[in-house]
Amino acid sequence: MKYEVKEALNEIMDIPPIYRRDYIVRYLRENLSERDARRYLFEKTKVHFIRKMMDEGFISPLDILEKIGKDRVCQFFHIKSTQS
Amino acid sequence: MIAETLLNWDKTELAEVLASEYAEPDDLIEAFPAIAKAGTMEEDLLEEFIERNWKIILSIFNVDALLKWVEDKELKERWEQMHSLNIEIEHEYDEYVNEEFCKSVLYSAMLFKDTEPENIGVLITRSRKS
Q1: Residue range B31-90, pLDDT digits in tens
Q2: Which 3 state secondary structure label does DSSP give A11?
Q3: Does A77 sit within 8 Å of B66, measured CB to CB?
Q4: Helices (DSSP H) in B32-62: which residue ranges?
Q5: Which backbone phi and psi does A20 adopt, to 5 degrees?
Q6: Size of interface A-B (CB pairs under 8 A)
Q7: Please, what is the end-to-end C-alpha distance for chain B in angstroms?
């Protein structure tokens, strides 16, 4: 991380918590693309988001399994069997 | 404030750090309300997400359902193999039939090569009888 960016981050962290969240939200809105924001949201919500997509019918469980592939599903069983 | 005076690419870097480490999912949704809609997940983002998190995603599936899916998949693969093998055999058979046809045409041509035109009718009658 660049020195300036680190310094700016420190400055943001110095904002009292009650105002910090609003500042971060505003900063993200102005300086982050919506696409990147969505990517971070997926990463943070992980299974919750996929489950929501399945529940709302935007993707079927079969589509997800197809995307994951048979080999990795078998690998998953192998991992589970070694754990138990 | 330093954050406000950064150059554009540094602002983006800072925003990425904030988004990845300090922002809660609710903060991201508050900044961009549209991203919470499940149906708007881009195909390439989904691919990328699945690539990185497939183990966690698989953990939400029922194990029996997964086993059944693997079984069905193997069955389908075997069927597809058989199907492509059948197509190959059919193709070989067609080639064989065509080859035989060509041979018979050549044979007939050879038969009529030195024959006088008036005797061709006799030869055709003979070959029909045989």
Answers
A1: 999 888 776 667 778 888 888 889 889 988 888 989 999 999 999 999 999 999 999 999
A2: helix
A3: yes
A4: 43-58
A5: -60, -45
A6: 161
A7: 105
Cβ contact, residue pair B70, A51, below 8 Å: no
Q: Please write the tens of the pLDDT for every residue from B44-55.
A: 788 888 888 898
Q: Give buried/exposed letters for B85-109 (b at 16+ CB in 10 A, else e).
A: eeeeeeeeeeeeeeeeeeeeeeeee
Tokens 């195909």 map to which residue?
B43
Which residues, in sequence order, are CB contacts of A67 under 8 Å at separation 6+?
B46, B47, B50
For the complex shown, is ipTM > 0.85? no
- Cβ burial of B49 (10 Å; 0-12, 13-18, 19+) is buried
